[in-house]
Design brief:
With 303 residues, this protein is α/β, with parallel strands linked by helices. The protein contains ten helices and twelve strands. A hairpin with a 2-residue loop joins strand 9 and strand 10.
Length: 303
């Protein structure tokens, strides 16, 4: 390995900033992995300094500095204004994060949102590489406390004209959805996010219950069954939009909601029901890399 082949990545999260150094694109072995607390409540300038601190600490430990670095962020950078937007870490919004980090670190910086990083990681070193090596178009979904999506074409993130390609979580899905933080109503995120499903259950039952318990209790709890049916119905209706418009070779489902096993039988049947095709050949699969995907994908932005 030469230092110039090493891939450096940073995953900027709301509570932690994680960094990784991979040996090379061809051999993505982990050479170093470290994290620090984001301390986002202390503001934008503090977040930038924590990123710089982490890079400095990693460089000192590994013995060389990066030639370039990839950074996964909540939200995305507007291609025209250079401002970060659509981030649920709101103190990053309307900031020139990309430009500021180039100046702060003094090296080329490549930025993509966290869902895109998830998708590119699973493509380059995860389930897609292992099971579907000839896939050209990959769509990655994160279904957790929020809902996001990322699009990878021929191994590279596809950002789109507005920098929002793959933002499946903010497709309008149903009038019965809640108001969304994005300012709109009935987005996928307001229906299929874990917290949204828990709120739906409480609205109908009057009881607070975690999603995993709701799914476990559905055979004996009519409100749990109703929540389950809502999940399966709108999972199919929402993902069929992706199949009909993009027709990807593979769809990967990440995030806590993605661990619900019913999505991979009844859920796929629901997608097929809404797809504009006699059958559904698109593999819809679980990821391989788990929580590692974001930081690995950030590193591959530099490849």
């Amino acid at each position: 390995m030469t230092q110039s082949k090493a891939l450096w990545g940073i995953d900027l999260g709301g509570t932690k900033i994680e960094g990784v150094v991979l040996k090379s694109k061809a051999e993505p072995d982990v050479l170093l992995r470290r994290r620090v607390a984001t301390e986002a409540e202390q503001g934008y300038e503090h977040i930038k300094e924590k990123i710089r601190l982490l890079v400095d600490q990693m460089a000192e430990e590994i013995g060389f500095r990066p030639y370039s670095i990839g950074i996964g962020t909540p939200g995305s950078t507007d291609p025209e204004t250079g401002l970060l937007k659509n981030s649920n870490s709101t103190n990053l919004n309307k900031q020139t994060l990309h430009k500021d980090l180039i100046e702060l670190l003094g090296i080329p910086v490549f930025i993509a949102n966290d869902a895109n990083c998830f998708a590119v990681a699973e493509t380059q070193m995860g389930i897609v590489k292992e099971k579907f090596p000839n896939a050209e178009v990959v769509f990655g979904v994160i279904m957790g406390s929020g809902v996001g999506g990322g699009l990878v074409i021929n191994g590279k993130v596809w950002n789109g004209k507005h920098g929002i390609a793959g933002e499946w979580g903010h497709i309008f899905l149903d009038e019965d959805g809640e108001d969304c933080y994005c300012g709109k109503h009935g987005c996928v995120e307001t229906i299929l996010a874990g917290k949204a499903l828990e709120r739906f259950y409480k609205k109908n039952s009057g009881v607070n219950k975690k999603l995993k318990d709701i799914m476990a209790d559905r055979s004996e709890d009519e409100y749990a069954q109703k929540t389950y049916e809502r999940l399966i119905h709108f999972f199919g209706k929402g993902l069929a939009v992706i199949v009909n418009v993009i027709d990807p070779d593979v769809i990967i489902i990440g995030g806590g909601v993605g661990n619900i096993p019913y999505l991979y039988d009844e859920g796929i049947e629901s997608v097929q029901k809404f797809t504009f095709n006699p059958d559904l050949k698109t593999p819809i699969v679980k990821p391989k890399l788990g929580d590692s995907a974001g930081v690995f994908g950030a590193a591959f932005l530099t490849a």
